[in-house]
Amino acid sequence: MSLFSKSLKPLVIVTGLFSLSLSGTISAHGNDHDNHHKPEEQHKHTSKKTDVMVMNGYARATFALAKTGAVYFTLHNQSKSDKTLISVLVPQDIASDAQIHTTVMQDDVMKMRELTEGVKVKAGQMIAFEPGGRHIMLLGLTKGLKEGSEIALTLKFDDASEAKVRLPVKKEPSAGKELSAGKEPSAKKETGDGHHHHH
After folding, report:
1. Could you tell me which of 43, 36, 77 has the C-alpha nearest to residue 161?
2. Contact (Cβ atoms closer than 8 angstroms) between residue 119 and residue 194
3. Rounded CA gap, 172 and 157, in Å?
4. CB 118: neighbour CB atoms within 10 A?
5. Is 23 exposed, middle or buried (0-12, 13-18, 19+ CB in 10 A)?
């Protein structure tokens, strides 16, 4: 009897060690997987929530063979620190480059100038990119920006955060009034708003 139990013990110990080392490997692998995964998630989280909200964004529809396009939006800095939009990335299948521009009056002529130092958005401030002012210029369009389609942009800020946005392609609101046949409901609404402003 005692001989039997003696021969059984080593077997139990070996099995115990084996299962222990196996579970150790699993948990180590699990931790490694978590550690590898977490920063990626945090990075994703940071790049999405850059504390700067992109609102009312759209790209202006162009004619089919256009090589340049313009994008407008409003940036709202919801953080307690100033941020600077330093660059904008556009997928190569849409355009070859995206630049931050502003429109300046020079000798009674409207000219576009690239803002190479970016645009600063102070803490809590809202900055509008709109026709006749700041805008994102798309250069080397692969095809015209068609109304109803979408474009993807990545906005990069000086604190290494970024915002990925998808913006609709729309006709200019002013063009919408002239071409009311194309979009009856919105044209009516815009006309109504126009009247309201006149009053």
Report:
1. 43
2. no
3. 27
4. 16
5. exposed
In angstroms, what CA-CA distances link 28 with 6, 17, 19? Answer: 33, 16, 14
Q: Which amino acid is at 22?
A: L
Residue position matching structure tokens 């002239």? 178
- Of 119, 122, 147, the C-alpha closest to 133 is 119
Distance CA 136, CA 169 (A): 13
Q: How far apart are CA 58 and CA 172, in angstroms?
A: 9
Tokens of 159: 């604190």
Nearest in space to 82 (alpha carbons), one of 126, 134, 120, 128: 120
Report d(CA 71, CA 94) in Å as an integer. 13
User: Is the CB of residue 145 less than 8 Å from the CB of residue 66?
Assistant: yes
The structure's pTM equals 0.63
Q: What stretches of the chain show up as alpha helix (H) in DSSP?
A: 2-48, 173-178, 184-198
Q: Which two tokens stand for residue 53?
A: 């909200």
Give the tens place of pLDDT for each residue, 64-115. Answer: 999 999 999 999 999 999 999 999 999 999 999 999 999 988 888 989 999 9
Cβ pair 104, 113 in contact under 8 A: yes
